[in-house]
Amino acid sequence: KEIEKQWLHYEKDLATLSIFNDQERRLARALVWRRVSEIWRKSHVPEGSVLGRFAKKDDRDRLLECAEKCVELAPEHAFAYRALIEAFETLGDDPGAAKARRRLLQRFPDDAEAHSWLLAYYLLYDEPQKALAHAEHARKLQPLDESLRAAAAEARVALARQLALEDRFAEAREQFALAEQVFPPNKEDFTVLACRAVLEERAGDEEAAQQWRTRAGASLVEATPLTLALAAETRRYKLPVTRAKQWNDQWKKELKQKCNSETAGAMCRLMARRLVDGAEYVGRSGHISELKKYIRRCTRVKWREEDLRHVCRFLRELYESDPRDNPRLLEDCLDKGMRVFPQSPFFHFHRGELEVELGPFDCDRYLAHECFSKAAKYAENSPFPEDASILEDARKRLTFLGEVGMPTSPPFSFMDQFFESSYEDDDDDDWEEDEEPLSPEMFDHPAARELLELMAKKMGIDPNAALDAMTREDFERDGDPLPGPHPRKGASPHRSKRK
Questions:
Q1: Which of 15, 129, 214, 274 pairs as cysteine with 279 (C-beta 3.0–4.6 A)?
Q2: 98: Cα within 13 Å, side-chain hemisphere
């Protein structure tokens, strides 16, 4: 607060500075307000789209007020709108961030980042007409970006579904034809062809529907992924329930066949896309449950790297959409990927991410550092284009681990730095005598203090009172349960026994 106070005094001085003209004064004051917004965002609001939602209302309002003041003073500069966008994203307010980007585009209509972000936003909220407008503009600005071509085709397919639901079948077919033109050559997607087959079935042309189903299944090793796509799209296109049940029953029968890499990868790629798109339909939770059972059966499958990547992406999206989901299956798949494909940066990076998400107390920082180091090393020569971003992200994670005091060698844990180094007793029978009590110095560490404050804020209690209760010297454990191991037993070989 004292730092903010000094910046605001500076802003008042700038308002009366005579050596600047009016435009220069407004620009200088806007830069000060952007700085105040950054200070407030970093010191009062937890970072991240999830944690930001726990911020107090007064802190949220103050953050947005600072960003809006920046836009008010410098509406002709893009950095002012960026400050407002960052404020909304920190608070986890996607509609607010979308509104801020629309304001940015009114002043700067050729901002590629804003068009790309709004394209993904409108696809997520099933507004394909708006998404398509941003897709076309973004493709003009970045004609070589393959992801924009795929997103533009996806927007046309979504628009075709909306037209089909209104029984405007001719217009829907036209959108599918345009989507096929956008797709890269020789890379037909069976999910799009399945949508076209369901469209023809809704239009009453069974012969055309069968032709599209045959074409969709031509590139697949087994028909199981196609059957899953037809079961899902039949629901989304609102065909009769009996027809959807037929596809669903057929899919469950096909799942009983011997597992293979290509089938698992194709089904996971389909369902991961549905999770990213936010596509809700009746029976989706059942499809996810059955697919997870199929993945668990794939213990002796000879994996292809791209298929195992699709499996991990699906499980990752599932875990992010529902944090209550146990990530053990994802962890097992990532571990298998590191063993079978040791030079693939994808599996090392996401395994490190999963470990860091355990938090400062349960995270095995040595394991996380090792994973990110290998990811950064192998990403430099990876043949997969998507791994280009892993190099930069892995280096950022390594910097983060260094800033919060990562140990340089195993098996030390985050908590070991707060205890006496002379601890040598290997006998756990007299644990209560050997274990030193918690001390307030343990929470002088920024990461530990931040975690304590966040937990106290979520529970509605005073963090200082919680710290006092945890560090009382006369605390006795008579009959009280002791902290147990993390529910993911055996998650890491470097867990400290004094955890």
A1: 274
A2: 14
